[in-house]
Structure formats: structure tokens, C-alpha cells
Write a structure and sequence with these properties.
Elements (H helix, E strand, L loop, with lengths): L4 H17 L3 H17 L2 H6 L6 H12 L5 H12 L9 H12 L2 E8 L5 H15 L2 E8 L6 E6 L2 E6 H15 L2
Parallel strand pairs: 1-2
Antiparallel strand pairs: 1-3, 3-4
């Protein structure tokens, strides 16, 4: 089941703010990583989280059990809240959104860069400096080549994609021609 990104981001933000207020960002991040790992290891976990025959208490208990170790009170309360609101389906997706938010709030950002051809060291350094200026954050680049882009660059900043690839431009041109022909 794919969760709505907007809802995941909203709950991740609320959890982050609560964890930050209690000084528990690190332990919540670790617990969410264990929950995400449990969901990847066994796809039935997500099904159990949303099973209609389970009570809110049982669903919250599954979340706490998957978090493993000592669960901080803010995460336990959050598990109870999402279980009561029947939003437990988002739980396996929270770690990524929470971790991105923690990075952003700490002044660091991960940016994925896809290019048709490998970038030179100078291009990488220039791109990193420019992104740090624009984003007003310390930027870590993860660079990969993707021959399907045909040219240009595609950036992944958090859950946003900035697509300046030739492939995207051709798709856009094709769509414009199709719509213009009607």
C-alpha cells in the first residue's frame, strides 16, 4: 500500500516537533528505522497494521513492538494517536520523511543528482556551491548517471524532483503538440 505523501509528511512533521520539544529526535529516528526495516522484511507487517479486526491498542502495540528496544514516550503516544485515527498505514513510510525533516532542520540536505554523462569534479563542486546558496543548507550530493535522461540533469531534493533533463523536455513538447492538435 502506498501512503499519501502529504499525510506522511504532515504526521512526520508533527512527530518531529514533538520529539524535538522533548529532546528525543535521535531515539525516535532509530525506532522509525527499525519499524521501516520490519516493514521491508515482512510485507505482512503493513497489512497487520491496518487490519480492521485489530483494536487501536493492538495496532499501537504492533508499532511499539516493531520499534524494538526502549521506546521513548513521544513515540508511544504517537503510535496510540495514529492507531486511534486509523492512520497506521503510514507508519512504514515515516522514517524517510522524518529523517529528511531532521536533516533539513539541522541545516543539511541530501540532493540526488542524475545526469546523462558523468560530471567533472569541477562541475560537481560548482553544482554543490550553487545548491548550498539556493537552499541555504549544507548539501551532500549523491550522483548517478542515467542514460535514459538523454541529456541535462535531474535533481531530487527531499521528496521534490526538479527535472531539467532532455527526456522531460521531449515529453513536455510531445504533450504540447498532442494538446495543440485537438
Amino acid at each position: 500500500m502506498a501512503a499519501d505523501r502529504t499525510i506522511v509528511r504532515r504526521y512526520a512533521t508533527a512527530l518531529y516537533e514533538a520529539a524535538e520539544a522533548k529532546g528525543q529526535v535521535a531515539p525516535v529516528t532509530e525506532s522509525l528505522a527499525r519499524i521501516a526495516s520490519a516493514a521491508k522484511a515482512d510485507p505482512r507487517f503493513a497489512i497487520f497494521l491496518t487490519h480492521p479486526r485489530l483494536s487501536a491498542e493492538e495496532r499501537a502495540g504492533l508499532i511499539v513492538a516493531a520499534a524494538g528496544g526502549t521506546v521513548v514516550p513521544v513515540l508511544r503516544s504517537f503510535a496510540e494517536l495514529v492507531a486511534e485515527r486509523r492512520r497506521t498505514g503510514i507508519v512504514p513510510y515515516l522514517h524517510e520523511a522524518f529523517a529528511l525533516l531532521a536533516e533539513e532542520r539541522s541545516g543539511r540536505m541530501q540532493v540526488g543528482v542524475s545526469t546523462f554523462e558523468p560530471l567533472t569534479n569541477e562541475s560537481v563542486a560548482s553544482l554543490q556551491r550553487r545548491l548550498e546558496e539556493l537552499l541555504k543548507s549544507e548539501v551532500t550530493l549523491t550522483i548517478q548517471t542515467d542514460r535514459e535522461l538523454l541529456g541535462g540533469v535531474q535533481l531530487r531534493i527531499g521528496d521534490r524532483v526538479v527535472d531539467g533533463s532532455l527526456r522531460a523536455k521531449l515529453v513536455e513538447l510531445r504533450q504540447t503538440l498532442i494538446e495543440g492538435g485537438n
